[in-house]
Design brief:
Length: 366
Amino acid sequence: MSHNSFGHLFRVTTWGESHGPAIGCVIDGCPPGIALTAAEIQAALDLRKPGTSKFVTQRREPDEVKILSGVFEDDRTGGLRTTGTPISLLIENVDQRSKDYSDIRDTYRPGHADFTYDAKYGFRDYRGGGRSSARETACRVAAGAVARKVLDHLYGGVVIRGCLVQMGKIHIDRARFDWDETARNPFWSPDAVAAEEFELALEKARKAGSSLGAVIEIVASGAPAGLGAPVYGKLDADLAAAMMSINAVKGVEIGAGMAAAALTGEENADEIRLKRKKPHFLSNNAGGILGGISTGQDIVARFAVKPTSSILSPRKTITRDGKEAEISTKGRHDPCVGIRAVPVGVAMMAATLADHALRHRAQCGS
């Protein structure tokens, strides 16, 4: 299986399966001399790990990360710093229940990659989906923590945040938007009222053996103007690919996104004035990117996550040997995978920006 890497100069390769002994990643291209500890990476992983509330999978994985290479003790400070060599990270799997999947080893789960894996490879790891499992995203979150250290090293002050702005048919109210609120509820909702509605809707779906989809918004503040390239290295194209590569994502938009089609030219154009002798945009329909290059405004990406495909409600399907069947998926699953996708989206934004920052420095200098 190829295509397990993303990025160019900041390049991440992930490895491992959902029910294997461990998962991990190798990060290539991280500049030397950056202070980095396992605790900093762990803090990011703790935001994504399962079992944190009744609204996510109850698989009990501590997601404890180990740095195997790429750092060395600084004689002056006594702390660890990156050496510029590949950083290898290991996360052991400790709470697999492969027997939960023995009943479906020869039956394709609707909405999953079971059929397509068999169609491509003629062989698949049926235990939780193997490489197609969202368990792989822990590696992305770990790499994203390193990417944020790179951005701090190059620019300082780049802040990347994520929130859940829609669950099922329920939308947040932008008039009540509060970033601080995302830390006060289990849904990453910036709207306290919507969080209560999310809870009622998800509890209803969970008890019915069903699931809900969600829309996630990721915002990067403080990134400089000039990141990206105007043709095949567009920042927004790479961001869209990064977000689209996350498990269960079925749509991505930048800035106003699909809503831009309903705007007039006058409404959509982000007018520019001078403020303290610097360009000041009066709106941000472009999502902080024009012509594939960052403007210095907030970079805004949004992605839609489909409802969890593993549900208890019986669904029609077929088996590997061509027989029609019916299936209900048992095991421990997220009733809304969008909740734990928030820190994954933050990580992919960080990794994409770190890669483009290093590309920019290589071509244009610091």
